[in-house]
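Please review the protein record below. Tell me whether the encoded fold seems credible here:
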Amino acid sequence: MKLSDYVIEFIKNNGVNIIFGYQGGAITHLVDSISKIDGIEFMSLYHEQAAAFAAEGFSRISGNIGVAIATSGPGATNLITGIGSSFFDSIPCLYITGQVNTYEYKRNNLIRQEGFQETDIVSIVKPITKYAIMITSENEIRFCLEKALYIAKEGRPGPVIVDIPMNIQRADIEPENLMSFYDSEEYKNMNKKYSNDSDVSEVIKLIKDAKRPVILAGGGVRLAKATVELKTFSELTGIPVATTLMGIDSFEHHHPNFIGYMGSYGTRYANLAVANSDLIIVIGSRLTSRQTSSNVKTFAREAKIVHIDIDINELNLKLKEDISVVCDIKFFLKKIIKILIEDNYKNNFLNWIKRINSYKEQYPSYPTQKQNNNIDPNEFMYKLSEMCDEDTIFCLDIGQNQIWASQSIVLKTGQRILNAGGMGPMGFALPSAIGAYKANPKVRIVAIVGDGGLQMNIQELQTIVRENIPVKIIVMNNHALGMIRHFQELYFSSNYYGTIEGYSSPDFTKVANAYGIDAINIKDENHLGSLIEILKNDSPYLVVINLSNITYVIPKLEMGRPIEDQSPLVNRDDLENNMIVDMYKLDKN
């Protein structure tokens, strides 16, 4: 059997029916094998970075591994941003790169290169992968592929890369004689850590003693496939749920226990709830400074912290935790739910939730910057989510568009939001939407981008046309790099160099039309009604929402302040009246 055929059959047999990529000389054997094997297809995008993002989108919606392929040299290096994105957001992806023949590969590190487009991609990406290997013998292929897929999904998920030289791709092998990773001592010795009963008992005791508890749900809930268990745990205990940016779609937004997205760019009401809590149960979040504030000592000053995460390295990292549990989230939640039911646990925190609801009434996420009949971005996001059917997937780019959507989209049952968090790469939305659609063609896909982010991977409009993917592209066009422009306003005396001055964007409707995509410009609220029919259309469509070039994400946490004290600052008396814990006094020095 030809080795390249074996690789593709292996991927197919692991439940993957599509490989994203861009053709190149060093992967011609692999792509040729895809063309000859039923039940799996090669989707060519127009940049390897986009292929990497598409694999991530596919993985997040399918719940399986996403696969992208690229040629050696520039093809492989073009994958790097996507590899980093899946690494920092813990998304299991397999990246396969072609490599020059082993007999052309440089013989020592004193020379830069021997073969054409030879690049040591394994060494380059090792810091942002869970496993990276170059195959040096055809007899290694089964072992390394099995190990790669296992490591990608095991524990805290993430990307892996397998680099395959051309002469190995075309080698003949006997699959039945190949060594399996699952028969090895290496596999048998891998640690699998779970919580013990004492962990659960201690958490239950803290819940019983609490008056103002909050569950903080992060991206790990989805990764552990534990959304049902999270809902059951919240309903059983009566504890309200706040989410991080990556955890926004881990809990139903219409549920009475949902209290919103918290953090530096989170809603004021969610931040007030977390700040005033006396117990925070952190589930699958890294507790970065975007949740705690850069001034960590200000965070939830009277709360006990319980942190559950599968990655021991994320526990007790930034602040002192009262209980730290290394565990698969689904496993932990099932265990604590079972014990609570057996104990006939009865509790509710209705008065606490009532207090949080008063925060929501005082500080809704929209409108934030209403002017005459102009479109308020946050209000637009809310209206957009109301117009969309259940089972819609929103793929967000990076910048102000991402935060407006994260603050104000109210998810219906079955709706999802795909956010890129840790890497935060502009250009993520469009290719991730393509990957999400290929994972589930029955759902509606809405890509929300800024004018800057769209231009990062605008070439993928051709992929959308070629494949007739009915994605709706919402361009929040403020003719500026809005997030950085605001930063310049705050800290660089409004010197908008590189964000307004020296920056421009094209007429996106004309660009879309050139690709063969229908498009519309919407300049004020009077024209929003046309969106309803557009969203129901079964063809791709691009909608440009025209905004002023001076736009803001509101609220926003400035350096050193506690999460409950975002800018623009609210009246000091009002803030003090909303605080149950003592107000934090900033150090004037």
